[in-house]
Every structure is written in C-alpha cells, then in structure tokens.
Amino acid sequence: MVKKVAIVGGTHGNELTGVYLVKKWQKDPSQIKRSNFETITLLANPKAVKLCRRYVEKDLNRSFSIQALSKPDNKYESKRAVELNAKLGPKGAKSTNVDFILDLHTTTANMGLSLVVSSQSELTWKAVKYLCAKEPSLKVYRWRGDEEDSFVDSIVPNGFAIEVGPIPQGVLRSDLFFKTQTLTYHLLDFFQKLNDKKELSECERKIEIYDHVKLIDYPRDENGEIAGLVHHERQDRDFEPVKKGDPLFETFDKRTISYEDDEELYALFINEAAYYEKGFAMTLAKKMTL
C-alpha cells in the first residue's frame, strides 16, 4: 500500500514548471489530496530557484549516489542532498519516509511530454503503464546515462521524473505546464485506485519505451572546444529514428558528420542546453516493447 507520495519541483532552479506547480499546490493542497494516502510537496533546491539558475555549486540531480550521500563535500547541493535524503529516505533503508517520488523537470529539447525512468520497481512500471494509457502521446525513456543512481527519485525504490519540452530555461509555457499538472493528477489517481484494490487493467498492457544505449558528444577540436553544431536536419527531431548515413552534426566550416553505426536508434535530448557542460549533444536509445 502506498502511504506517502512526494512531488518535487525545483531540483533545477531554472526549470519553472515544477517550481510553480509546487508553489500552486502548497497554496491549495486540496488539488493533490487523495483519501487513502498523503501527498507532500517541496522545492528541492530553493537557493537555485531564487537565483533562477540550474544549481548554485553543483548539479543537485547528480548528488544522490550512496557514495555522495555518505561522504558529502561542503558544496550547497551536497548538503541539500543529505537533507532531502533524511526527509524522504533514507536511501537504501528497508523502510523510507515516502513511498514514491515524482520529480518535475523541463528540457530545452523537443521531448514533448515524457517520463525519464531509472527505477526497475514493479510499482514504478505499473504507474508508467497507467499513465501511458491515460495519455497516449506520453513517451517513456529508460535512462542509463552519465551518472547512475544519482537522481532525486533514486532516494526511494519507486519514482520517476516527468520531463517536458521544449521550454527555454527560466520560462513558463502554458500548454506544457497544464499537461504536467494533468499527468500528475493521473498519477495520484493511480495510487488512489491501487490502494482501493480496484482493477487496473491499464497496468497489464504492453508499452513502447526508449531504452538508453549511449551518449553522443559534439564534434571537438584538439583543445576540447566544441567544433560543430547539431545538424539542422536533426534538430528538434527527438524520439525519431537515426539510421546509418543520417546527418548528426555540421562543423563550423559546414562539413557534415553522419551517423555511422548499422543499428537504427532513436535520438533524445537533442541539443539540450544544460548538457553542454556535461559533454553530450544527444542521447541515443533503442525502441522496444515492454
């Protein structure tokens, strides 16, 4: 039985959809109240929210590995991660303070309405299937990315992130704001039905997911500087297939760099602004039925 759900916004301070949804629900908790479990809301990185920056000193959403939590440095986000772990977790315990974490994010990439899932728990994937039934346009990305098991939602065994875009950093966009809100309400309804032991036929259906394969960096020169751009034919084509010979990048002197692998994959997080510092231009994933 699900007893407590946490809705987290502002893990990245310049992703305002989650920030303002959390503020809205803190003013009027009745909208997220359900009869048979408790829902709490919080801003994960309030200093970054105030500054409207992704983070103050380091990426909070890469700060929740067991090693980072056990040996935190003196940076603000490291200390905040320890606080959040104590409030929501603790990570790795048999019993945690919340049963499910929903983390609200936005992206500058053309990802539409999507989920980023790292958890392998049965409850998490039941929730994913339910949401896919309620919102047919929803895309699901199973992440195996730059750092494993370090997201906010990794504090507890069950959870995922809602990722919507394209939205510029520091900007609200009404259509994706309300789509995120509606998807959150569907998730809370799922827990209500689950606790009431209602039939959930939606959770038995097959779904298509995009399973992470690898990260792709920008072209770089001998000094490590970016030497090219995402090709104009690839820009904004998230969740579309990439085939051998398709253009991926064009250098500053307009030379095309094409995809050379034989395996057809799908491009996601194309040209995400926040990933320039992380050293990748897009992720590639395999489409599969779960």
Number of domains: 2
Give the helix tally: 6
The name of the CATH superfamily of the largest domain reads: Zn peptidases
- Low-confidence stretches are none
Using the CA coordinates, give the radius of gyration.
19 Å
What is the name of the CATH architecture of the largest domain?
A: 3-Layer(aba) Sandwich
Mean pLDDT: 97
Q: First CA to last CA: what distance?
A: 24 Å
Biggest sheet features? 10 strands, mixed
How many E strands?
A: 13
- The chain-level structural class is alpha/beta
Described by the principal axes of the CA atoms, the overall outline is globular
List the helices and strands in order: EHEHHHEEHEEHEEEEEEE
User: Helix coverage percent of residues?
Assistant: 10-25%
What can you tell me about this protein's structure?
The strands form 2 sheets. A 10-stranded mixed sheet has the order 2-1-3-6-4-5-7-13-12-9. A 3-stranded antiparallel sheet has the order 8-10-11, with no helix packed on it. 41% of the residues are buried. It starts with a strand and ends with a strand. Strand 10 (247-251) and strand 11 (256-258) form a beta hairpin. It is built from 6 helices and 13 strands. With 290 residues, it is α/β, with parallel strands linked by helices.
Could you give the topology of this structure?
Blueprint: E1 4-9, H1 16-27, E2 38-43, H2 46-51, H3 66-70, H4 76-88, E3 100-106, E4 112-117, H5 122-134, E5 139-142, E6 159-165, H6 174-195, E7 208-216, E8 228-230, E9 240-242, E10 247-251, E11 256-258, E12 265-268, E13 282-289
Parallel strand pairs: 1-2, 1-3, 3-6, 4-5, 5-7
Antiparallel strand pairs: 4-6, 7-13, 8-10, 9-12, 10-11, 12-13
Helix pairs in contact: 5-6
